[in-house]
C-alpha cells in the first residue's frame, strides 16, 4: 500500500495506517460485518447477538461470568467512563481521582458535572503517581467529613502512554473500603491486567482501540455486587445509568436503540480476539512497540517516558529541535501514516506514535524511515 494520494487537506483515497490511539485499523471481516442485515433491536436475533458479545467480553478478559457482567452502551469511550463514574458514586458520595493526564482530569470533571464531591490527586504526567499523596488525600477528606465511596484511576494514561500502578491503587481502595473504578479505555486487550487481583470493581472500555472493533459501541465490565451496593437511587442520569442497562440486558432487552451494526462488528472483533488469544494480541502489540521504539532511538530521538512506565501501545517522543508537529504530521500523512500530537501541556514538546490495531510490521518500519527522512529534510 502506498501513500494516501493527498495534497494537504484533501481526503485520502487510500486507507491510511492509523498510528493514533483509536480509532484503529481493523480486520476486513470487522468492516464487512456492518453490511449485515438490518435488525430491530427488540427481536430475538438482536438479543442473541447482545448475549454473545456480553459473554465474549467476559471470556476474553478472563473474569468470572457469574459475578461479573459486561454492559454495552452506544457511544465513544468517554460514554462508558461517564456511565461508570455517574453510576458508581451515590448521592452524597465522594470520589477520589488519581490524575496524571488528560483522562484522569476528565474523570474529575465528570464527577463534578454530576455533583459529586471530588478529591483530585494530581501528579506530573511523566511520572508514576505518588501513592502516599493518594493515601493522605483520602485520610484528609474523611477527616473533613467527606463521605468517600469511590476511587477512580486511569490504567493506561493515553496522554503520555504511561501505565499506572493499578494493583497498588486498588489495594488503597480496598484498604479504605472504596469502590475502585478504572478507565481502561485504551488498555483492555492491549495490556495484561488481572481485574480481580487489582481489586477493580468496574472497568470502562471501547470497541475501537485494542479490541479492534469500530467506533460507536463502548462497554463497562463490572462486579455485579459492587454496582448493586453503590447504585445511586435515584439515578443521576437517565441515559448513562448502568443499573438500568444491566437489568435490561440481563433480561434480553435494551433501554434504548443501540448501534446495531457496530455491535455486529464488535461481535466479529471479539471472535477474532478469541482466536488470536489475549496473550498473542499483547505480544503482537509489544512487538509493534519495539519496532517503533528501537527505530526512533536509532534516529537519535528521545523517548519521553522511562522504560518501566511505558505501555504496549503508545510511544511519546520528545519533539526534536527545529521540527514542528505540523510539518512532521503532514510529511507522515503524505506517506500514508496518521500520527498524533502531544496532548495537554505536551502539545508543543512531544508527539505520539500509537500502535493499536492491525498494522503490518513492514509498514511500521517504513513509518520510521519516513520519520528519519523528515528529520533530515
Ligand atoms: C480514548 C480514551 C478515552 C475515550 O475517548 P473517546 O474519544 O471518547 O473514545 C478515555 N480514556 C482513555 C484513557 C482513552 O485513551
Q: Could you describe the 3D structure shown?
A:
There is one protein chain. The two termini are 23 Å apart. The protein folds into 2 domains: 17-21 and 278-376, Aspartate Aminotransferase, domain 1, CATH 3.90.1150; 28-274, Type I PLP-dependent aspartate aminotransferase-like (Major domain) (Aspartate Aminotransferase, domain 2, 3-Layer(aba) Sandwich), CATH 3.40.640. 47% of the residues are buried. The protein has helices spanning 28-33, 44-60, 77-88, 102-113, 131-143, 166-175, 224-230, 242-250, 260-276, 278-298, 325-334, 361-376, and strands at 17-18, 68-74, 94-99, 117-122, 148-154, 156-157, 162-163, 179-183, 202-206, 217-223, 314-318, 337-338, 340-341, 350-354. The protein is built from 12 helices and 14 strands. The protein is of the alpha/beta class. A hairpin with an 8-residue loop joins strand 13 and strand 14 (350-354). It has a 7-stranded mixed β-sheet with strand order 2-10-9-8-5-3-4, sandwiched between helices. The chain has a 3-stranded antiparallel β-sheet with strand order 11-14-13, with helices on one face. Strands 1-12 form a two-stranded parallel ribbon. Bound molecules: pyridoxal-5'-phosphate (PLP).
